[in-house]
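Progress against Task 2.4 (sequence-to-structure conversion) is shown through the following example record, which the project officer requested during the mid-term review.
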Amino acid sequence: QVQLVESGGGLVQAGGSLRLSCAASGRIFSINTLGWYRQAPGKQRELVASITAGGDTNYADSVKGRFTISRDNAKTPAYLQMNSLKPEDTAVYYCNLKGRSDVFDGFDAWGRGTLVTVSS
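Structure tokens generated for the chain above:
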């Protein structure tokens, strides 16, 4: 099975920056889409940013101009650069990968999340 582990979260003051990484293990033949989601206390999980195999990106309106999603390789396929952080960005951030393990099998994998806390 494909497993994901997020890292890079922590406590940061408003206006600061963090870079989240997502490391992957297991059989990954190709990645179709990768995305970052977040869930704040008492709120639903929401899509923060995504990028397709073709390089098309999509951002939530609340993070446009501040966050940047990027990709590297199958082992560490997802990054999220977060600048100008605000207290409302406080949440658990999750990475999600959709792709294929081989010719026959696809996958939809989620990490356990990393906590980002932004203080005012």
